[in-house]
Structures are given as structure tokens and as C-alpha cells.
Amino acid sequence: MKGLLLIALSFYLFNASAQDERFYRKIFTGELFQKPQEIEEFKIVVKTPKYKLDLNRDGIEESIVIMKKDGIDFFTILDSFGRLIFEKRLSTMGKGSKLFKMQLKTLSKNTDALILHFYEGATEGTVFEATARLYFLTIDHRNLNKLYFYEGPHFYHEKQMPNGKYFNRRYTVNTLDYNDDGVKEISISYNKISRIFFYVSEGIWSTI
């Protein structure tokens, strides 16, 4: 009987000690004071197939998947094991939105950029109108832990006016080293407007 009591007491003390240890660990790490993360729930989720691309050029392909969650577009990157590396919401303006083109470009020996061509969708009220936008995903030092997402300019505009007039503005996108500093810039020609984007560092861009 004494043996059983001793075992029970030892078990109780061990559990109490373990609980105290976990409690104090949460205090020191700050985990105790953190608010639980809110999980955003969606009713309808639709995914594209996995588009394979070696983003950091290490010979192992990552997967890019575009998801529609309740009609909202999300750009996601998965590693070779299917684990989520990166996710970003895209600006959806109307129906028919989609990512229709991607270009992986080397800007310098330290930075690559994935240029996303995203059709934001169309709205139909008194007039039909549709727009598209560029996004720049930069990868510094070919490290997938250093992914930076930048919302770039509109590059496409289509509009149907009530009086029957219609216009559709086209565009071109180029990567060239305009100032001979060893880093390529991204230039966008849109209608009669031309803009050049200069990469600074860590996802920061400047433009003229």
C-alpha cells in the first residue's frame, strides 16, 4: 500500500513540476500573453493546378497555386513537400479576375523578381470597365525566407461607355539596366505613359 501511495505521489509531483515548467516557459517566451490567432474561414475555395517553377534556382521546383476563396484571389507558394511558404491576397475588383502571366527575371546577382500580370476583373453597371495590375515578388540572395511582395501599377484599362465609345489601352513590360548600375529596372509602357521602377532592397521600390 505504501508503495502505491509513493508511486501516486511521485506521479503527482512530476506532473505538477512539468506544468510549472511549461507555465514559466510561456512567461519567458511571451507565449502566455499572445492572443490566439484568428482563423479566417471561407465557404468556397477553388484552386488552380500546381505550376512548377524553381524560384531560387537550386534545382528543386516550388509550386505556385492561385486560390479563389469566396471570390477573392490569393497567390500562394508551396515548397517541394507541399508546405506553404508564402501567401498574399490580390486586389480583386470584379468578375473574371485571374493571374494570366508570370515572368521570372534576374535583376542582379543578388535579386530575382517574379512579375505577376493580374487581371483584376470587370464590373458592369452603367458602363463596362476592367483593369489589370502588376505585382513584383522579389527574392533576395535566392533565399525563400526573404520574399517581398510589392503592388505595382495598373497596366491595362478597358472601358465601354454608354454612348457607344470604347477604349482599350495596351502595354509592354521590359527589364533593362537603364542607369548602368548593375541592377535591372522594370519599365512599363502604358498607353502614352512610361514608368520605370528601381529596386532598392528588401522589397522596396522607387519609381519615376
> Beta-sheet strand percentage?
over 45%
Helical content stands at: 10-25%
Task: Find the structural class using helix and strand composition.
Answer: mainly beta
- Total of helices: 1
Please compute the radius of gyration using only Cα atoms: 25 Å
Overall domain count: 2
- Output mean pLDDT: 83
* Shape annotation: flat
Oligomer: single chain
Distance between the termini: 85 Å
Which stretches are low in confidence, meaning pLDDT under 50 for 5 or more residues running?
2-19
The beta-strand count equals 14
Descriptive key words:
208 residues, mainly beta, 2 domains, five-stranded antiparallel sheet, 14 strands
Could you give the topology of this structure?
Layout: H1 2-29, E1 45-47, E2 51-53, E3 62-69, E4 72-78, E5 84-89, E6 98-106, E7 111-124, E8 128-140, E9 147-160, E10 166-169, E11 171-176, E12 185-190, E13 193-201, E14 204-207
